[in-house]
Amino acid sequence: QSALTQPPSASGSLGQSVTLSCTGTSSDFGDYNYVSWYQQHPGKAPKLIIYEVTKRPSGVPDRFSGSKSGNRASLTVSGLQAEDDADYYCSSLAGNKDLVFGGGTKLTVL
Amino acid sequence: QLQLQESGPGLVKPSGTLSLTCTVSGVSIASSTYYWGWLRQPPGKGLQLIGLIYYSGRTSENPSLKRRLAMSVDTSQNQFSLRLTSVTAADTAVYYCAYMGPYVASFSSWGQGILVTVSS
Questions:
Q1: Contact between B94 and B115 (Cβ < 8 Å)
Q2: Under an 8 A CB cutoff, do A52 and B106 touch?
Q3: B113 at A interface, C-beta within 8 A
Q4: Do B45 and A103 touch (CB under 8 A)?
Q5: A3: pLDDT confidence band, cut at 50, 70 and 90?
Q6: Using the 8-state DSSP alphabet, how is residue B68 labeled?
Q7: How far apart (Å, rounded) are the C-alpha atoms in residues B115 and B6?
Q8: How big is chain B by its Cα radius of gyration, in Å?
Q9: pLDDT per residue over A68-93, tens digit each?
Q10: Which residues in chain B have their CB less than 8 angstroms from residue A97's CB?
Q11: Residues of B in contact with A94 (CB under 8 A)
Q12: Does B106 contact A51 at a Cβ distance shorter than 8 Å?
């Protein structure tokens, strides 16, 4: 059982926006702002798309944005494209310094 | 450009030892100020952090695996390794090595992954 909770599936139509959630306890997020999001296509390694809650690594489109409020982190994908069809995982540096992951959300682009 | 490549047996017998090596290119482990990590993903399931290792050999292990886990680093070969003992079918997974840097608590570079099956 994953420490962080993500809905198993989500969907959105081409061009629309979708927000994926990642929830946990206050201990799961600690007093840090070290929430990351990863995108994983079938048979591929995960790819970092958001770090430190809101920041994007170089090369990641600004269609991807992150936020956090209380014990809930969110990833918003705007202007959905076909290539956004993938699994998305959140992770957080917990209060005890452990790195915890969510179970992942399968995003389907309709 | 940083690249990581996992290597090792794809099949391990139950109660045996799983041993993997990650070869790093493009960056010297010895000069890195960040951690290197092992993660795994059972078929159809989510990601699990196995452990982290620093160039000095300092490690941080997942508490649920600590009793069976050993990690090491060989800076002369620019490699780091994983040994997991007393494996069962529950250890069947794709194993990834990854670089936890330059962002805190985030893996910015990953190996392609290696499927390790525990079966007799």
A1: yes
A2: yes
A3: yes
A4: yes
A5: confident
A6: G
A7: 10
A8: 13
A9: 999 999 999 999 999 999 999 999 99
A10: 60
A11: none
A12: yes
